[in-house]
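An instance noted here:
***
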Amino acid sequence: MAENADATCRDIVRYIGEKLDLPTQFVDDMPWEQREQLFDSGEIHLCWLCGLPYVWKMDTGEPMIELCAVPVMGHARYRNSPVYFSDVVVHCDSRFDTFEDLRGASWAYNERRSHSGYNVVRHYLSQLGERSGYFGRVIESGAHQVSLRMIIDGEIDASAIDSTVLEAELRRDPALGTRIRIIDSMGPSPMPPWVVHKNVPVQLRTSIAQILHQMHGDPDGIGILRQWGISHFANAEHSSYAAIREMAARATEVAL
């Protein structure tokens, strides 16, 4: 997830360790690409993973991961469901008012393995009958927060930002809301799940899932979840992520 989720993730990992009476460690001292490699190899056991790489990993011959739980955000727009949106953001003074206005504009996406910032945008364009060249200039920013800064600084015109990341940024810096506008939203999409590696013993996997599912009933757990706007953890169903697989198939028709 985005860096603005790190503090919450760290507290959840600590909370799990306290409940299990086991030592736990939140790994944040290396790039996310390296962390994903360590998760794939089983050296990292639990991961909050974007839905697109989750689908890719599950579509391998013998996947070594399984769903653990999925966060449900507390804001009313999510309707108590494990979903999120990709909000199309522009500068507050921008001349753009709709997505259709963005033809020929400059656009940033966070990175190519992202559903919220890249895959869903190409799917959206495919639904409009577009195949390539919709935006005048396209760059990879590396992260949603970087894309936001580029919009504010006038370096790009627009970007699709994970709604949960954007809400966390607005909680951290309420003044941000006066510098940007949302002109469209894509989704809803299935919420990125918490996924556990299968080298973790089955009983321990079950215990971790139970702890996450029960956090919202514990005062300490509630405090941690609210840091990032999470209402509770729900059961994650693999079938829910078929929507991302289908969007990815359509997205291949489009080049940004």
Summary: The chain is about 40% helix and 20% strand. The radius of gyration is 18 Å.
